[in-house]
Automatic annotation (TrEMBL):
Localization (cell): Cytoplasm, Cytosol; Nucleus
Gene3D superfamilies referenced in this protein's UniProt entry, alphabetically: 2.30.30.100
UniProt KW RNA-binding keyword: yes
Basic and acidic residues composition-biased segments: 23-32
Domain Sm residues, every copy: 52-122
Keyword annotations: Cytoplasm, mRNA processing, mRNA splicing, Nucleus, Ribonucleoprotein, RNA-binding, Spliceosome
Listed Low complexity bias regions: 12-22
Chief location bin: cytoplasm
This protein's name: Small nuclear ribonucleoprotein E
Summary of the function given for this chain in its UniProt record: Plays a role in pre-mRNA splicing as a core component of the spliceosomal U1, U2, U4 and U5 small nuclear ribonucleoproteins (snRNPs), the building blocks of the spliceosome.
Organism expressing this protein natively: Musa acuminata subsp. malaccensis (Wild banana)
GO process annotations (BP): spliceosomal snRNP assembly
Lineage, broadest ranks: Eukaryota, Viridiplantae, Streptophyta, Embryophyta, Tracheophyta
Family: Belongs to the snRNP Sm proteins family.
SMART domains registered for this protein in UniProt: Sm
């Protein structure tokens, strides 16, 4: 209230009653409507990594995994199990050598989560 007296206008954004600023012909802005519009424009739900892995498991999608500090090697396979540490059990796993463009069949493997840099469906 003291600030209102010094400045000569109200800082409140409520619609009840005119402030000194609006009495002088200045337009009062309604920020509530802008906030409501912004929240309805983009309504995206953040996907947790564990949920994405679970989706790969459910869909039996073939995925490619980039390995930590092994830029020339990648692993492809289907997730059949995982845990909270992102350790993965893969079936039909293959080791891909990016430089040589070769594939080595591995079968069923357990891949430690520490080795995973990126996961994507192929």
């Amino acid at each position: 209230r003291l600030l209102e007296l010094k400045l000569g206008f109200s800082l409140s954004r409520s619609s009840g009653g005119a402030s000194a600023g609006t009495e002088r012909g200045e337009k009062e802005t309604d920020y509530k409507g802008e906030a409501a519009m912004a929240s309805t424009k983009v309504q995206r739900i953040m996907t947790q990594p564990i949920n994405l892995i679970f989706r790969f498991l459910q869909s039996k999608a073939r995925i490619q995994i980039w390995l930590f500090e092994q830029k020339d090697l990648r692993i492809e396979g289907r997730i059949i199990g995982f845990d909270e540490y992102m350790n993965l059990v893969l079936e039909e796993a293959e080791e891909l050598n990016v430089k040589k463009k070769t594939r080595k069949p591995l079968g069923w493997i357990l891949l430690k989560g520490d080795n995973i840099t990126l996961m994507m469906s192929t």
